Amino acid sequence: MATKYQEIAAAIRKQIEDGSYQTGDLLPDQSTLAAQFAVNRLTVKKALDGLAKEGLIYKQSGLGTYVRGKIPFVNQETDIAVDDVRGGYEEYGEHITSKVISLDVLLPDEFMQQTLNLKRIDPVYEVKRIRYIDGEPVFFEHTYLPVKLVPELSEEICEKSLYEYMRKQKGIKLGNAFRKFSALAASTEDAEFLAVKKGTPILEIEQVIWMTNGRAAEYSINHVAGDKRSYTVMNVTNLGHN
């Protein structure tokens, strides 16, 4: 189910795509949009921030928010901003399903201790999942979580949404993420779980996610078949020097 800010973003996106808002048009200010959608300005700001990351709109300090229009090579269905920390269920809704390959508890090695800021005696979960979009395998996820963060983690929880469970059931507030992208050739394991040939190009996303209090919440390595997913970044700073 879409959140309110996603509904607002979708409504404005549709108005841009159907020509109700033309390239160069000035959007109504946040107060006007908040009244129009019966929400607060923070919700409107979150919606506009998302559209700005897609490149559909841009902001000029002191002047307002303008329509840029759709970037032809951006695919809304398969592309995601590199700094998006939504969970799969929030992004795909009922289209995503998960299959747990394994759920184990182990003691962290030196790398995991440093990455998740743990002691050697602090156990971590190791979760391997395949994520399907409309029944098609898209993500092979290899995730590590501190046991003390979610002590009752189960396969049933992992088959749904880890992030949603952490947010709604545990009150964990996820904040920042650092992601590293690499191009690799599919391993035997990738070929099996992603239904591709061994050696097929895949995208590896290595990431750490922190909570808003600065504590590490997750370390993961995700593999995606090369033709199933793209990541985008919108530079919103001034590139030129006047």
TrEMBL record:
The keyword DNA-binding applies. InterPro entries: Bact_HTH_transcr_reg, Chorismate_lyase_/UTRA_dom_sf, Tscrpt_reg_HTH_GntR, UTRA, WH-like_DNA-bd_sf, WH_DNA-bd_sf. Residues 2-70 form the HTH gntR-type domain. The keyword Transcription regulation applies. Keywords: DNA-binding, Transcription, Transcription regulation. SMART domains: HTH_GNTR, UTRA. Gene3D superfamilies: Chorismate lyase-like (3.40.1410.10), Winged helix-like DNA-binding domain superfamily/Winged helix DNA-binding domain (1.10.10.10). This is Transcriptional regulator, GntR family. It comes from the Bacteria. Pfam families: GntR (PF00392), UTRA (PF07702).
